[in-house]
Structure prediction request, 277 residues.
Amino acid sequence: MKEFVSLFFNHSLDLKPLNRYNIGRFDLELLRENGLMMVLPFLLVAIALGLVYFEKPGAGYVVWGGGVLWTLWLLNVHATDKLNLNF
Amino acid sequence: MTDSLAKTLNALGLLAITIVLTFAFADQLAKDDLPCPLCLLQRAGFALAGFGLAMNILQGQRARHFALVILGAVTGFMVSVRQIFLHIAPSSPYGSGYGDTFMGLHFYTWAALLFGLIIIGSALMMIFDNGYKTDGTDKARNTVRPTGLALFAFGAFSLLVIANAGSTLLECELGLCADNPTAYEMLENS
Prediction:
């Protein structure tokens, strides 16, 4: 897979520290990370609070549920990451 | 349990969670101690648990809101216990423990204890609340808009959640955070 992708993109796909990528260029790692937004749980809870405050508790439940699932997903990613994250 | 007592207890609970988030945030800003990925997930756990208490304040006390509190606290508890397990071994290459301590315990250990307390507290609130047995439903009893302490707790909690979202965006941009972060990625890249 790595060799195949290297045919099209002029950079290595070797694992590197997760925080090193450049915004603005196509990068499979960036694409992967965009699916792993750590900001999302807070964002979803903030949106859910707003929805409840403005009398939309049903939508608030759904958004809050998304926050829980995303947090659990991030925990799963952290626990199974090949970089063997320790913190 | 009377309505006013229930409302006060919910406000105090939310205030306690707000104080925890404020303490973590103050440590981050004062000591420039950036939160690690697991630390952020524990903060998210507090935010998720606090949402249930905010629902109690805004929509009236209901069993389902305590279910949200417990689910959020269990999520945070899993994260903090994972971090305890990662650092509990005396021969860990990362030394004994990670990050700052408070009264002899690391923050993630405190987090695990507090999540446990939140779960126990929610269970007790449901045990001592007789509002669910009146007509077989969990109808809300105090649906008036929050005032005073409840309003302050809700506002402060909301602000902290938004501040954490902003801080996490600065630190991690739109991806995962560095394993052991030392700088705000968005500020570094700008």
Notes: Residues 84 and 109 of chain B are 7 Å apart (CA to CA).
